[in-house]
Inverse folding.
């Protein structure tokens, strides 16, 4: 118990001290995970919507596949992306390994299935409700997918937040493809892992408290923004 | 057509985001694959600013076990390796993955264990100490991760005449983890563990543990530095990598290594060939 309360005090100290290195690590965490979430939304939302309204062979297989991929182990994704980006790998010539870009790619792979699967779920409901209406207007299925995505834009923020939560919390993938390089690819979760390795458990936990606070603040912000937007345009 | 349009727009947006993220300034840097002991002991944080000041080259350290660090370099993902397992390093050179191995510094391994010392392993003889740990079936934590320290541990067991394959039991705990995590495990189960002194000195969560065996000549732990062979991996930053190697074995570099102390205690002893 003592250690935990000491960690809370230390977390406050760290934040109050406004150490620039800590700020840089938090910023990089946000940049990488928000970047990955945006990428995953750009890929996963259209895909999820098409899976919902589309009728094509293999659709059910794809739905099961994306549902299953929500449980992708980060370390496996890390390893896969590492082998792709490694100098000896197919994309080696771009020299992306151990860069924040590599971390964004890995987290995108991790998060896109979550966003695709959750989007499909949301659009399924919308589709059931508006199918007749859209049909009577003569909308093609892709057209319908677009309309429904727009209709469901507020509900879809939850999908994006779920994806972001997964990205910011994982350590396995970014550790492998980023290498936890000080000042270059060191993010919150890899710092916590490192401090735990050094046996500095209070500092590790204090950093964890800061990470959770950042995530909560961001979620609260998204929630308020959504409410405001719904009132204004919903 | 419209399906493609939707997907294409998604892809285009994703690409724009990637480009936006990737557009950061490119520094002049090299990548060094090294061991957790050098990173977690704080040596690099002390050493690298001095090198950067002298040459303007940034060093990006990826800290892994020695086996993993050499594996990374074999794939061409590092310019220089800085590790501590002579046999594995020489194999790396023999397979022409590395150009030349230069010795840089040494520190030593220590046997860490519970202060109460239930196995009565206290002393200056590592082989005798290990024999007693095994005889008492006292809990022992092994790195088990093909690191330099793990290789050394296996070597000592062999020299001590303990056939691990036959004697391994619940007392021998293979954790497959880095030095720090393995020390955390040992601290929580009051086990013995072979550690490098640097990581130990910088380790905070010691619990009831202390040094049990130290000062044996056999515990000597040599670090070497190797440039990854540019003939094998053409993108290796040969000139800047060589500059780093030249600097760590130079008078300035060696002095910087000697200057690194924790609580007044020197962690690494420079011994590059003159």
């Amino acid at each position: 118990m003592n250690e935990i309360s000491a960690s809370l005090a230390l977390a406050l100290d760290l934040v109050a001290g406004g150490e620039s290195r800590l700020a840089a690590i938090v910023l990089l965490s946000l940049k990488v995970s928000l970047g990955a979430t945006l990428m995953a939304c750009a890929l996963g939302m259209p895909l999820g919507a098409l899976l919902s309204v589309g009728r094509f062979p293999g659709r059910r297989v794809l739905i099961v596949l994306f549902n299953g991929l929500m449980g992708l182990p980060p370390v496996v994704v890390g390893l896969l992306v590492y082998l792709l980006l490694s100098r000896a790998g197919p994309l080696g010539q771009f020299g992306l390994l151990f860069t924040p870009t590599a971390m964004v790619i890995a987290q995108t792979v991790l998060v896109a299935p979550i966003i695709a699967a959750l989007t499909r779920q949301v659009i399924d409901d919308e589709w059931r409700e508006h199918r007749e209406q859209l049909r009577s207007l003569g909308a093609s299925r892709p057209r319908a997918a677009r309309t429904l995505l727009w209709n469901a834009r507020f509900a879809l923020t939850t999908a994006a937040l779920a994806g972001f939560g997964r990205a910011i919390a994982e350590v396995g993938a970014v550790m492998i493809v980023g290498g936890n390089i000080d000042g270059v690819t060191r993010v919150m979760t890899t710092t916590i892992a490192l401090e735990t390795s050094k046996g500095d458990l209070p500092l590790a936990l204090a950093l964890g408290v800061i990470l959770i606070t950042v995530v909560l603040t961001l979620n609260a912000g998204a929630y308020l923004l959504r409410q405001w937007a719904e009132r204004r345009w919903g | 057509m419209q399906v493609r349009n939707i997907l294409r727009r998604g892809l285009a947006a994703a690409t724009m985001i990637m480009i936006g993220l990737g557009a950061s300034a490119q520094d002049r840097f090299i990548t060094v694959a090294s061991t957790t002991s050098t990173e977690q002991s704080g040596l690099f944080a002390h050493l690298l600013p001095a090198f950067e000041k002298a040459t303007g080259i940034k060093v990006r350290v990826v800290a892994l076990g020695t086996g993993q660090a050499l594996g990374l370099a074999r794939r061409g993902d590092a310019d220089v390796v800085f590790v501590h397992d002579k046999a594995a390093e020489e194999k790396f050179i023999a397979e022409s993955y590395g150009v030349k191995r230069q010795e840089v510094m040494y520190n030593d391994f220590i046997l860490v264990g519970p202060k109460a010392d239930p196995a009565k392993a206290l002393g200056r003889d590592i082989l005798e100490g290990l024999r007693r740990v095994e005889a008492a079936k006292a809990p022992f934590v092994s790195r088990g991760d093909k690191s330099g320290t793990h290789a050394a541990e296996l070597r000592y067991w062999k020299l001590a005449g303990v056939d691990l394959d036959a004697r391994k039991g619940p007392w021998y705990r293979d954790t497959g983890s880095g030095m720090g995590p393995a020390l955390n495990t040992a601290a929580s189960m009051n086990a013995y563990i072979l550690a490098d002194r640097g990581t130990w000195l910088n380790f905070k969560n010691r619990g009831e543990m202390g040094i049990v065996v130290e000062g044996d000549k056999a515990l000597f732990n040599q670090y070497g530095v190797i440039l990854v062979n540019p003939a094998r991996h053409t993108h290796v930053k040969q000139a800047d990598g060589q500059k780093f190697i030249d600097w760590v074995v130079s008078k300035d570099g060696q002095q910087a290594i000697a200057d690194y102390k924790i609580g007044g205690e020197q962690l690494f002893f420079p011994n590059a060939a003159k």
The radius of gyration of chain A is 20 Å. The mean pLDDT of chain A is 93. Residues 100-136 of chain A form the longest helix (37 residues).
